[in-house]
Amino acid sequence: MLLSLPDVLLDSEVASIQALLKKAQWVDGRTTAGIQAATVKNNQQLAEQDQLLAQIRRIVLQALHRDPLFFSAVLPDKILPPFVNRYSGETNHYGLHVDNAMRSMPDGSARVRADVSATLFLNDPDEYDGGELVVQDVFGEQRVKLKAGSIVIYPSSSVHSVTPVTRGERLASFMFIQSMVRDVSHRRMLFDMDMALVKLRQQYGETSEVVQLTGIYHNLLRQWAL
Questions:
Q1: Average pLDDT of the segment spanning 162-173
Q2: Residue 197 sits in a domain of what CATH number?
Q3: What is the domain-level CATH number for residue 25?
Q4: Are 104 and 190 in a shared domain?
Q5: Cys-Cys crosslink for 80: which of 97, 120, 160, 176, Cβ 3.0 to 4.6 Å?
Q6: 32 and 78 share one domain
Q7: Average of pLDDT values for 60-66?
Q8: Mean pLDDT of 79-84
């Protein structure tokens, strides 16, 4: 499932992150790439030790935890602390690749299985040319370029790329999530059921049928959650 969610970040949060990034010192983005991805990755990112990254991570994670649509679509168990990257100048693209299945937490305390990947856009699309996220999967090829504060989520198993940025700079936070529900088709069914239940509640209230369907949703989640 590929899903775009608008306004995950408040305008004030976007402004705070953009102000922090004006002081950023960028390093080679290949530091977090796997063996195959490193051969096609040509961008920059904030170093793990950079204190700016810690501040941005707090803002991003706070926003994700309060967003009900993100929770419903991803059903997150663990979120690898988000990274921040930049595409501009000579470091302006990322070729076709697949994200590594397993990622280590920054402190080495645990590993996170990458079920879902996400890109949170940190500046508006009219500030740069190119820089589309291109995702290939069973749903076909999708090209994504969203306004600042919006996020796109997609299966980590998808082949994807970022097209060259030919003007300006593209700023984004990217992250990997281990879901409570490992199977992508099960996650999609649960999300569709949850969205249908929201609409039924709005239209009819907490009827006995809605209560029964809610129970089925949670029982499926119990069965499918790892």
A1: 98
A2: 4.10.860
A3: 2.60.120.620
A4: no
A5: 176
A6: yes
A7: 98
A8: 97
Average pLDDT, the chain: 95
**Measured between alpha carbons, how far is 46 from 52 in angstroms, rounded to an integer?**
8
106-122 confidence digits (pLDDT tens): 888 889 999 999 999 99
HEC-encoded secondary structure of the chain: CCEEECCCCCHHHHHHHHHHHCCCCEEEHHHHCCHHHHCCEECEEECCCCHHHHHHHHHHHHHHHHCHHHHHHHCEEEECCCEEEEEECCECEEEEECCCCEEECCCCCCEEECCEEEEEECCCHHHEEECCEEEEECCEEEEECCCCCCEEEEECCCEEEECCEEEEEEEEEEEEEEECECCHHHHHHHHHHHHHHHHHHHHHCCCHHHHHHHHHHHHHHHHHEC
pLDDT at 31 over 90: no
Domain count along the chain: 2
Residues 103 and 200 in one domain: no
**Alpha carbons within 13 A on the beta-carbon side of 176:** 20
- pLDDT for residue 37 is more than 80: no
Contact 174, 57 (CB under 8 A): no
Q: Is the same domain home to 110 and 85? A: yes
Closest CA to 97 of 55, 53, 43: 43
Q: Are 219 and 114 members of one domain?
A: no
Exposed, middle or buried by CB within 10 Å (0-12, 13-18, 19+), for 74?
A: buried
Instruction: Tell me what percent of the residues of the chain surpass a pLDDT of 70.
Output: 100
